[in-house]
Design brief:
With 303 residues, this protein is an alpha/beta fold. Helix content is 34%, strand content 13%. α4 packs across α7.
Length: 303
Amino acid sequence: MDEAALQKFGPAFQVFYDPSLVDDEERLFQKLADADALIVRNRTQVSARLLDAAPKLRVIGRLGVGLENIDLEECTKRGVSVRPATGANTQSVVEYVFGAMLFLRRGAFTSNQQMLDGNWPRTALGAGGEVQGLTLGLVGFGEIAQAVAQVGRAFGMNIIAFDPYLADTDPAWTHVQSCDLENLLARADVVSLHVPLTPATAGLIGASELSKMKSSALLINTARGEIVDEHALATALKAGRLAGAAIDVFAQEPLDGAAAAVFKDCPNLFLTPHIAGVTRQANVRVSQVTVENVLKGLTEEGA
């Protein structure tokens, strides 16, 4: 996290900051013995075992919004407040989605070596497509997806979304058409995923769902890796049943060589290491919001 944000705790709090604790469970548990609060990203598994090692814990600040690494039921039982940095990295994810979308649709940004070799691939690279007029399908229509929709409209895209948990009367649906998942997959030229990882969303996009998409469509996943069947996606790309994909999250993270092998030789595939919501600016915002959340939680709990 951005260390400068820790100064907000002031002299009233003793702060121990060490990112290496995530890889040293024994030392982490030792430090938790007297901790009133804990700040984590997504790699620290806040399990019942960890909570047993932190009997005084009252607040957990999450540097991000995903909560699948935190046992929320156990936290509730023990009176531990869990506070994600909601909204702090929205802009970064939105820009990633459109950067990836434009990269994949235009297909013109990997020509450096050809140009340096003295070639002039104007005909091939001039065949890329625009996004104006395309249909953007958003799976999940929370805060980030709504921000993506706003930018999509500015690009002249038609926006459709699937979110069974958002009331039909919610004003967020203004200028956005609600539809079921099957209809969305069949109509969208670009499908962008914005749902949390839950039992209901694990494996949400599998071989059957991918087969319903247009062969000219793109898939962008900045949500969680387990939502997409990676083998089915790789098969669809190699078979030309999908035009391209941008994947920022994976079932196994960090992604090692063995796990990455499934993506080998996939055409028009853009892979990044879970950084869609991570920029310099977002890290500052996320860190500041997390510290503020923890301070508020400690004050409310009287810790």
